[in-house]
């Protein structure tokens, strides 16, 4: 399983599927299934039963987001507002005789930090 380059609160754009072209923030990342939950994307209707547990006593139809596969979304470049690939830049800093490595995520399209 490869490392996921999409993190929570990233702005992503859907590049494949029924919601192609939509942009939204990542709500949750599920690394074990390679899926992400994106705000306003892949909305489904869920039928809930009326019950008295946990303070929920009204049933009905709810519309909510469902997870989408991570290969169907790309991170949006902060400068151009278009989808881009993500690269990791590794920098070394020297402080008080010690070397410290700093990793930062970079948009390939513009070179800006994410």
UniProtKB/TrEMBL annotation:
SMART domains associated with the record: KOW (SM00739)
GO molecular function: rRNA binding; structural constituent of ribosome
InterPro entries: KOW, Rib_uL2_dom2, Ribosomal_uL24, Ribosomal_uL24_C, Ribosomal_uL24_CS, Ribosomal_uL24_KOW, Translation_prot_SH3-like_sf
Subunit structure: Part of the 50S ribosomal subunit.
Pfam family, one: ribosomal_L24
Protein name listed in UniProt: Large ribosomal subunit protein uL24
Compositional bias (Basic and acidic residues): 81-99
Entry's family note: Belongs to the universal ribosomal protein uL24 family.
């Amino acid at each position: 399983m490869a490392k996921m380059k999409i993190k929570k609160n990233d702005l992503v754009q859907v590049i494949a599927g029924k919601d192609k072209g939509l942009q939204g923030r990542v709500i949750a990342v599920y690394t074990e299934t390679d899926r992400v939950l994106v705000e306003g994307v892949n909305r489904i209707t869920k039928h809930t039963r009326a019950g008295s547990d946990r303070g929920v006593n009204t049933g009905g139809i709810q519309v909510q987001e469902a997870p989408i596969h991570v290969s169907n979304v790309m991170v949006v470049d902060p400068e151009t507002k278009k989808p881009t690939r993500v690269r990791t830049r590794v920098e070394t800093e020297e402080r008080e005789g010690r070397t410290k490595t700093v990793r930062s995520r970079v948009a390939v399209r513009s070179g800006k930090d994410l």
